[in-house]
Structures are given as C-alpha cells and as structure tokens.
Task: inverse folding
C-alpha cells in the first residue's frame, strides 16, 4: 500500500527527457538489473557504445546542483556493481566477471520538476550473462516525487 501511495505521482507524469543521448533502451537488461515491483517506466536501462567517461562528463555538466562525490568514477568488483534489486543470477555474474573490476559512476540531475538518478557501469554483461560487452550500461531511475505534507 505504501508503494502505491509513493509511486502514484510517478505514474501521473510523463518521464522527462534525458539531458544527453543515452544509447538504446534494453528491456532485457532492465528486467535483469532493476526491481520488478515498481511501476513500469520507473527504471530504464540503456546501453551505449560511448565510453563511460564521456557520458559521465556530459551528465555532470547538466547537473546544476552537483554534490561532493557525485559522478566520481569508482572501481568495484564487477558482480557487486550491479546491486541486488533485479533478477540477475548473482553467481553467474560473479563467474562472468571473475573478480575483475568495472568503472562505476552515480549521480542525479533535476530534469524538469523531478530528480532522475543515474548509475553508469562499464563494461557490462549481455542479457544472457554469458559475455561482457564494451561500452556503458546506464540505469536511469525516475525518483518518485514525495507529496507535500499538509
């Protein structure tokens, strides 16, 4: 019930356009790496041939209220970079990356009237979790607006 209350305003508004080209949408990777219990469109996953550094630079430039540490590139182990929210098989991810590190950056941007959070990971797995792809995976989260208290 709480999720419905929090996410109802999200459903009422169209998603704002991203400030930079994010590549192509990947419904298969969206299913793998995002929660399935939220309304459709809350999370979007894109893949881009662009280097992570170029995308981070472009997104950070659009961030008018950048906080300390936002958009900084980190180097976690590959399997750990994808979190635990989706349906991806964590053991398979661990075997695929074999402890190798990936580049990871996070930040958020005000797009129109709402905040949008980004997670960028490079390299990234294909949807079958059998191959590591060059390029960048971008997870875009439309942060639900919290209704004003009365």
Result:
């Amino acid at each position: 019930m709480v999720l419905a209350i929090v996410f109802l305003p999200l459903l009422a508004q169209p998603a704002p356009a991203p400030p930079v080209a994010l590549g192509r949408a990947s419904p298969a990777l969206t299913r793998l790496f995002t929660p399935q219990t939220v309304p459709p469109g809350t999370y979007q996953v894109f893949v881009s041939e662009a280097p992570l550094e170029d995308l981070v630079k472009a997104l950070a430039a659009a961030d008018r209220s950048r906080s300390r540490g936002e958009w900084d590139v980190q180097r976690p182990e590959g399997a750990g970079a994808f979190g635990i929210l989706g349906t991806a098989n964590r053991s398979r991810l661990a075997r695929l990356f074999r402890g190798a590190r990936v580049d990871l950056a996070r930040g958020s941007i005000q797009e129109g009237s709402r905040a949008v959070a980004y997670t960028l990971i490079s390299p990234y797995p294909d949807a079958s979790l059998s191959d590591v792809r060059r390029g960048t995976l971008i997870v875009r989260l439309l942060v639900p607006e919290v209704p004003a208290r009365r």
Observations:
- The radius of gyration is 16 Å.
- The CA atoms of residues 3 and 81 lie 25 Å apart.
- Residues 2-12 form the longest helix (11 residues).
- The longest strand covers residues 103-111.
